[in-house]
Amino acid sequence: MDEASQALERYVRDESARLVASLTRQLGDFDLAEESVHDAILEALSHWPASGVPKEPGAWLRVTAKRKATDRLRREVRYRDRLQALGKNLARAVEPDQPGVIDDRLVLIFMCCHPTLSREAQVALTLRSLLGVTTAQLAKAFLTSEATMTKRIARAKRKIVEAGIPFAIPSGDEIRSRLSEVLTSIYVMFNEGYLSAGPATSQREELANDAEWLAGLLRQLLPEEPEVTGLLALMQLHQARRRARFDDRGRIVLMKDQDRSVWDRPAITAAIELLASALRMGQPGFYQAQAAIAGCHAVAVRWEDTNWELIVTLYDQLLSIADSPIAALNRAIAIQYRDGPEAGLAELDPMGRSLDSYHLFHAARAQMLRGMGRSSEAAAEDRLASKLTSNPAELSLLQRRIEDETFIKDGHGHPR
Amino acid sequence: MKYAMVILRDEEEWQPLNPEQLDFELTAGWWAGLKGKVTASVRLGSRDQSTTVTWRGEQPVVTDGPYVEAKETVGGIVVVDVDSAREAVELATTFPNRVGIRIEVRPILEG
User: Fold this and answer.
1) Structural domains of chain A, count
2) Which residue of B has its CA nearest to A271?
3) What is the pLDDT of residues A32-78, one digit of tens each?
């Protein structure tokens, strides 16, 4: 995509959240507002590259969206009565955000991430309403057809109406309890883009950037919530190391082998500062813990400088917040690095029952066995792991390790 | 048992942490050590945001700003629920922001 179109898309994305939010409030109809803005965006994307970006793009979008809404209301018989009543509302200019007034975009985020919707639906709806991502772009990013994506969005909106979800700010307590749902949706969005099967395509890179933008917006709206800041810092830390994740043949590079000179150090410093400001609030939190662990890696100049003691402590913290078998697995791996492969294996083995079908469990076991010189057992574990994953980048990594292990066994290769 | 860590700042000595002084590991280590023990944590607005109320006899006297004579101001309070006073004190010793800071660890009276 050329630079002008990219700038255009970026611009559209920055404006759409405000626009959908304020139109929803004005029209009292989320579906109508959302469709109208979407149509306005489509028009902008098709006309502006040729005719040029208008002098006041925000105003153009607002006026166009309102016109689309009016057109829709006219077309749909059941809405004709409402049209008159709403005529006054539509004529009123959209007011800029006033300090002290609840930002409608916050309301919108919470509505789109409502727990009655499936995670898929939450993610799709949030991207459309808050970032102005078109249905076509969503379909591409999530590797599905436009028709399927259209249905998914429509179904999500219907659910919102059926569940009677109001366009209103959740109460203070409700914000706190629903916040983790919202944060998870945003993180899932980020991972869709970040952990894609293979080197990031431009579409999926956009997704990760969009999720980061959204977390940044959420932080603006909820600056005193350390978990929001934690999530933002976590994503920034991942992004800062992005370039080292794949080699020039598109294969995954493990953290310990990554070329740290291509890590974005200024971005890491900024993310660490951000994270520290959250941690200083002294509140436990899932995303803060994950970010702190990522931070430990990021501040280590070399792999050898990694503070494994602190990482294990942070995993203890993470596990006391959310008892996840995957976090326990990662903690065992950290113990391996702190205390040696025997200790790591001792931590790992009790998890065998619950994690037996998880490929990374076997990959971790393989690595520990390898560290103890038990290479044929290691190869067996890696083979098992490769049967359990379909991710091409991971498969190729596992395959390489199996080959290396076979080499070692035959004495032809050099030890890893 | 609950203890309050009253975090006091010496206004002349204390500085907000700047990036060079920032020790991430110290902060993360302190935070991790809090592991589920914090029951409340408040940060207070700066001195110039405060208003002081005293009384002359029965008459309340309200002035903008903090108590002028005070060299120290309360920056925040962290309430922890731990097994012993010693534990609370140990937690306080790991506090990452150390220049110009004094922490009073006091039991919270309940019931």
Assistant:
1) 2
2) B24
3) 999 999 999 888 888 888 888 888 888 888 899 999 998 888 777 66
* Closest C-alpha among A214, A250, A255 to residue A232: A214
The CATH number covering residue B6 comes to 3.30.70.1060
Q: Do A282 and B35 touch (CB under 8 A)?
A: no
DSSP state at residue A77: G
pTM to 2 decimal places: 0.78
**Which of B28, B36, B96 faces A296 most closely, judged by CB atoms?**
B28
**Dihedral in degrees, nearest 10, Cα atoms A295, A299, A304, A310:** -50
**pLDDT tens per residue across span A381-399:** 988 988 888 777 677 777 7
The verdict on residue B77 lying in a domain is yes
Cβ of B41 within 8 Å of Cβ of A281? The answer is yes
Using a CB–CB cutoff of 8 Å, tell me whether A399 touches chain B: no
From the CB of residue A135, how many other CB atoms can be counted at a distance below 10 Å? 20
Helix, strand, coil in percent for chain B, rounding step 5: 20, 40, 40
CB contact under 8 A, A283 and B38: yes
What is the ipTM metric for this complex? 0.73
